[in-house]
Structures are given as C-alpha cells and as structure tokens.
Amino acid sequence: MSVVPADFESPRLRAGSPEHKRLLAEFFFATHLEYDPERIDCPRLSDEELRRLTGLPFWQEAVSTENVTSNTVTAAAALEADPQLSRAIALQGLEEQRHARLLAALTALTAHYRIPIEFPAPYAPRNLEDDFLFAGFGECFDSFFAFGLFALARESGYFPAALVMVFDPVMEEEVRHILFFVNWVKARRMQLAWWKRPAFRARCAWIILKQIASRVKTARSLGGGGTPASGENFTLTAHQDIGAPVTLHGLLARCLAENDRRMARYDARLLRPRLVPGITRALVRILPTSL
User: Fold this and answer.
1) Digitized pLDDT (tens) for each residue of the chain, 291 residues in all
2) CATH topology of domain 18-286
C-alpha cells in the first residue's frame, strides 16, 4: 500500500481549502485497514508469558478509554458539514470501537487469555466539539508514547513477536487518527470567520493544557509510589510494566524516532502534529542520557 505519491513535489495545501479537505478524506479512506478483531488468531503463550500479559494493570483502563473515544468520535461525525469528512470521522469511530473490541473480544484477549475485563456502558458525549477536541488531543499525547512503547515491547522480547504484532494494525490506525485530527482542527479553524478564530484557538489551548496537566501529574508519580495511571495516561507508565530497561531520555528519544518513522509513510501535504514531538525534541536535547 503506497500512501506517499512517488512523484510528489508540491507544498502542503492551504488548510481548509477544498483541495485540502478532499485530500484528507481520500487519505483516510485509502489507508483504512480491513480486519476483524474476533477472527485474529491469538498465539499460544507459555505460563510465564501468560503471567506477564495478565499482570499488566491497564487492560480495564484501556478498554474504558477506547469505549469513550469511539462513542465520542462516532457522534462527532455530525459536526462536519462536508459529507466526505463526516464519513471519515464516522469511519474513525468504527476503528476506535474496533480497538476496544480487540482488547475485549473473547477470542482476542478476555476469554482466550483469561483477562478479567468489564465492557463499560456506551459513553454519551456532552458537547460534541469539545469532547471530540479533548479525545483528539489526548490521542496525540497517548499515541506518541505508545509508538515508542510498542517498539520497546517488540525488541525486548518481553512478549512473543506474534502477540506484539497483533497490535500493529492499532498502531497504524493511531497514526492515521492523529494525522486526520490535526488537519481537521486546522481546517475547522480556517473555515471560521476571522473574529471567531481566536476563541477557537483559546478553547483548543485550554483543552491541551488540561491534557498536559493530567500527564504532568502522572509523570510526577513515576517511581514515587503514586496512584496507578489513569486510563488516559497509562502509556506514560507502561514501560515499567513491560520490563523494558530504558531511561527517560531513552524512552523519549525512542518515541520521537518511532513517531517520525511512522508519520513519514503518509502524504507530505498533510500537516503533522507539532506540539508533543516539539516538546519531546527539546527534552531530549536538555536531559542527560543517564536520566
């Protein structure tokens, strides 16, 4: 599947233009992966591998987070007047729900590996746009760290390669979701009257600050006997649970490298997320490698 035009030389399109919106929708439909979580063939695990898997503390939080996100994104399709973008958002909601199914399906994890998960009741969004923005910015944070953690889990041998690869389609979908979201936010803002744009920016900034504050609270608890990470923050502490001997500097550098590698596969005309990678690059430059 080629997602970057071989002869591509044009600069990025003007956000919110008909060409930009058409490219955004076409990119999302063209890169959609077809798979059925209930039909995935889960590998056989040894007793020790099974103990490691069932001992991870974040399965319930992960399922709950995906449940909230999938319902939020599905409902947010009503926000978009452009029929193609509305369809794309609805498709993203389906993919988010598929993530929850992958975690909770009987043949994928819960019954097969005896992980006790209770599937939560459907989440009803309260404010479509605010909830969609909150979920999207949260995904920008969590997926960035998940890319690095996935690479560490794959390379450390803590879990068998076949089990790690069960989740590879999820990683690719998260890349697409982030790309779609950051482009949609920019297009949404550019379509507003000029005098409404500052308020939209301020609302996005407030939501981002709330997400940052939540992650800072989690980071401060690392190694300090704090409470377990919440569902939206478990990616920040998961490296402790997968047994990966890595420093904070090493973890951040790996997350950054994986983010860049995965993003590079997609059309360069699409905007890339800048906040989380930008903060991480600054931290990698100033943090000692031993930390």
Assistant:
1) 445 443 333 466 899 999 999 999 999 999 999 888 777 777 777 778 777 776 666 666 677 777 788 889 999 999 999 999 999 999 999 998 888 777 765 444 445 555 665 665 666 667 889 999 999 999 999 899 889 888 888 887 777 888 788 788 889 999 999 999 999 999 999 999 999 999 999 999 999 999 888 877 765 654 444 444 444 444 545 555 555 567 888 889 999 999 999 999 999 999 999 999 999 999 999 988 887
2) Ribonucleotide Reductase, subunit A (1.10.620)
CA atoms of 95 and 2, how far apart (whole Å) = 20
Measured between alpha carbons, how far is 234 from 32 in angstroms, rounded to an integer?
26
CA distance 289 to 240: 18
d(C-alpha 16, C-alpha 71), whole Å: 25
Contacts of 91 (CB under 8 A, 6+ apart): 28, 29, 32
The domain limits of the chain are 18-286
Residues whose CB falls within 8 Å of the CB of residue 143, separated by 6 or more in sequence, listed in order:
174, 175, 177, 178, 235
How far from each other are the two terminal CA atoms of the chain, in whole angstroms? 39
* Euclidean distance between CA atoms 263 and 276, whole angstroms: 13
- Cα-based distances in Å from 22 to 1, 14, 101, 106, 250: 19, 12, 30, 38, 39
Q: What does DSSP assign to residue 192?
A: S
